[in-house]
Design a protein that fits this description.
The complex is a heterodimer of chains A (119) and B (107). Chain A has 119 residues and is mostly beta strands. Chain A has no helices and eleven strands. With 107 residues, chain B is mainly β. Chain B has no helices and eleven strands. Classes of the chains: A mainly beta (119), B mainly beta (107).
Chain lengths: 119, 107
């Protein structure tokens, strides 16, 4: 069974940092590109970052570029999101997501980890 | 980035009603469109991909249609479990974009 489990969220002050993790199981992690998607309270879904299977191709939404860093450890079946210089508008539920297959729709999601940026 | 326009934002309906949600994209994405159902505080759940292919385990009352820039999700007979929020998503490239969402409420 495919499983994705996020962790690392919490309450942080503006300007602070957090590192989110997404541990996966039930499939060969190195065969899949991965995405981080967030959802602010009462809002829609926003792709914030993407990483290819090898890590050679990376994408960031403009709203997080220069502040967030995506990475992966294929040996440890884990995806990461380092978040620096956090702002109130980064408050959201953060999901990692895996496509059904290369280039496919998001067939598998974690349960999400909540990040709250507030003083 | 490809822009998504989803309508309506809210839909009030009764059990056994037939309802439809529309999604338009700012450029031609062929059939690379998916529909998701989401409940509060939970992850989205994939209903339909490639515009009209039902994900395994999804009831047949859900159907999708369209190609190019205009797409529709239809629920043929609304059931109590279907009151939720629905999102469309394009995956023409790895830069996914999502519609704004449609909340299906009980009339």
């Amino acid at each position: 069974e495919v499983q994705l489990v996020e962790s690392g969220g919490g309450l942080v002050q503006p300007g602070g940092s957090l590192r989110l993790s997404c541990e996966v199981s039930g499939f060969k992690f190195s065969n899949y590109e991965m995405h981080w998607v967030r959802q602010a309270p009462g809002k829609g879904l926003q792709l914030i970052s993407y990483i290819s299977k090898s890590g050679a191709t990376i994408y960031y939404a403009d709203s997080v570029k220069g502040r967030f860093t995506i990475s992966r450890d294929n040996a440890h079946n884990s995806l990461y999101l380092q978040m620096n210089s956090l702002r109130a508008e980064d408050t959201a539920l953060y999901f990692c997501a895996r496509p059904l297959w290369f280039g496919g729709a998001a067939g598998h999601w974690g349960q999400g980890t909540l990040v709250t940026v507030s003083s | 980035d490809i822009q998504m326009t989803q309508s309506p934002s809210t839909l009030s309906a009764s059990v056994r009603d037939r309802v439809s949600i529309t999604c338009r994209t700012s450029q031609n994405i062929s059939r690379w469109l998916a529909w998701y159902q989401q409940r509060p505080g939970k992850a989205p759940s994939l209903l339909i991909y490639e515009a009209s292919t039902l994900q395994s385990g999804v009831p047949s009352r859900f159907s999708g249609s369209g190609s190019g820039t205009e797409f529709t999700l239809t629920i043929s007979s609304l059931q109590p479990d279907d009151f939720a929020t629905y999102f469309c998503q394009q995956y023409n490239t790895y830069v996914w974009t999502f519609g704004q969402g449609t909340k299906v409420e009980i009339k």
